[in-house]
Amino acid sequence: MVLPWEVQYRIIHYLDMPEEEENGDKVTSGKRITTGIIVNYLLVCRNWYGMCLPKLYFAPALTSKNFNAFVDTIIINKKKNLGYYVFELNLSTILQSGKNSFVSKLLRRCCSNLTKFIAPQTSFGYAPLISLKSCHDLKFLDLGLVSETVKLKELFSAIKNFTKLTHLSFPRSSIDCQGFQDIEWPQNLRYLKLSGGITNEFVIDTKWPKTITTLELSYCPQIMELSIYSLLSQIGDNLKHLFFHYPMPSLTENSLDHIFTYCANLISLQIMVDYCSKWCFSEFMLSKLVEYDRPLKTLYLECSGSLGLASKIHPDDLTIAILESRLPCLKNICVSPKLGWNMKSDEVADLVVSLEDQDGSLYLNY
Fold first, then answer.
1. Do you know which InterPro entries this protein is assigned to (predicted)?
2. pLDDT over 90 percentage in the chain
């Protein structure tokens, strides 16, 4: 019996289905783990070649070893236009320097259907930014690994017409904020990660898009407390997820105590104990909402491990907030072992019991 080509195509589809899709899990890492398409499938027959080729190039797994061969295949073979099949381009593992021309050419060849792009750990100069303009279907843009200064004005000039862009991560090393007053934000931006050399002037004077629901701040050496609350005063009520990462050297030991005042609708929050105190969870800073229950479900307490931080936030501070119904929806508390809590103490046991009463749990977040 010979199976129809349509049935064979469905079989190939299930072989190549990502594990996250099969399990119904939410994809948070940006990784696409496949269960099956291998090069040998292309050798079965011409029809199998045509069916497998798009799946093979959908999200190529690139390393420093196969990157040059991939570039040659995409760029040199113009007849087959293999870049048309590339939807996700992850160059985070590419360590070579001086490859601006390669990145630029790849973006031009893959621009037709590219929806996700993670920039390499090298420079990302003017030429790649020009090529980036052609990727109109881009939804996910991560420049977090870029090692050289990116001019903010040129970046936003490249992405201003990206109506489908929902995720944007700034470079981690440095960014030139000159001319930020004239930038236009993508109209459907949902996730924004700020990092690198962004200035207080940029954060305070920018008109932030109300569409942002997830905000991350990671190593912003210049950003002060005033800038953070100026930003949150604009979009804090819209945020569902807020994450702070260490280090933020311009913040003080209690700079983040007012987070709940500005962000009443958070579902998940990661906060650095280095920059907050027990007053963050007091009835003055974390008051009970009148119109609805505070929706916070997951709380991450991270810590750098520096001396003197173990006593800043006590388990009882959270237990009291839960018992007073100021965190009625809280299900998960993830605590860094660097915080120094004694997980066998009575205080931690009381916190666990109060969480279990509302079907929650306490986790050590290694």
1. LRR_dom_sf
2. 61
Among 149, 171, 189, which residue terminates a domain? 189
Residues 16 and 90 in one domain: no
Considering only CA atoms, which of 313, 234, 239 is closest in space to residue 275? 313
Q: How far apart are CA 293 and CA 80, in angstroms?
A: 57
Tokens of 206: 């920018």
Phi, psi of 96 (to 5 degrees): -65, 150
Give the separation between CA 39 and CA 80, rounded to whole angstroms: 17
306: domain range?
241-366
Environment class of 275 (CB within 10 Å of its CB; exposed 0-12, middle 13-18, buried 19+): buried
Residue 282 counted as domain residue: yes
- Cα 198 from Cα 200, distance rounded (Å): 7
Same domain, 77 and 104: yes
280 and 251 in one domain? yes
Q: pLDDT tens, 160-204?
A: 899 999 999 998 877 878 888 888 999 999 999 999 889 999 999
Among residues 51, 85, 48, the alpha carbon closest in space to that of 70 is found at: 85
Given a contact cutoff of 8 angstroms between Cβ atoms, the answer to whether 207 and 189 are in contact is no
Domain count for the chain, please give it: 3
